[in-house]
Write a structure and sequence with these properties.
With 183 residues, the protein is mainly alpha-helical. The protein has helices at residues 10-18, 23-29, 36-47, 49-94, 113-138, 142-163, 168-182; strands at 100-102, 108-110.
Length: 183
């Protein structure tokens, strides 16, 4: 055992570290200042926070990568479903009156105006919903654009106020003007 000389004092040493005492102070309290270097090596080996912090960062980074991988997988699955929806919309929009098709019982039917009046709006609806979902996923939807504009406005407001920080009169006028703009 590397720290045999400390074995009788381990509880006192651990308590000293918990009380934020230095290895030199612990050695003095034990009545043997020569134990300082051994206590210091024990502290580095057992209580070394650098290693613990590094391990914690590694674990956190690994968990972050796993969570990111799961999020990417969910986005890919969503995009796959979106692609299938777009294929279905295309199929529904490409049918023409008079086209022949097979139904589930195997019999052949001809597409009528009545059937087309159901298929075409359904295809358009799927197409519009898919486009909306694509925009939401990319952040180009209306809510995303509004949120970005609000964030940009707030950043500009803070930058202006910081620029005139040393001029309280100008700052007051700008604040009033911004309030007037917001209505």
């Amino acid at each position: 055992m590397a720290f045999e000389s400390l074995a009788p004092f381990i509880d006192l040493i651990e308590k000293g570290f918990a009380d934020k005492k230095s290895p030199r102070a612990i050695a003095r309290e034990l009545g043997n200042p020569n134990l300082y270097s051994t206590i210091n090596r024990y502290k580095v080996a057992v209580w070394g926070l650098k290693g613990l912090v590094k391990d914690a960062k590694d674990i956190r980074a690994q968990k972050h990568e796993e969570a990111r991988g799961q999020a990417v997988e969910e986005v890919v699955k969503t995009l796959d479903v979106l692609h299938l929806g777009l294929k279905r919309a295309k199929q529904l929009l490409e049918v023409n009156i008079g086209d022949k098709f097979l139904v589930s019982d195997g019999s052949e039917h001809t597409l009528t105006l009545g059937s087309a009046s159901v298929y075409w709006p359904t295809g358009m609806n799927i197409l519009f919903q898919a486009a909306k979902l694509e925009m939401e996923l990319s952040g180009d939807d209306a809510e995303g654009i509004i949120a970005q504009a609000m964030s940009d406005w707030e950043d500009a407001r803070v930058a202006i106020l910081k620029a005139v920080e040393d001029h309280p009169e100008v700052q007051k006028k700008i604040i009033e003007a911004l309030k007037d703009l917001r209505g």
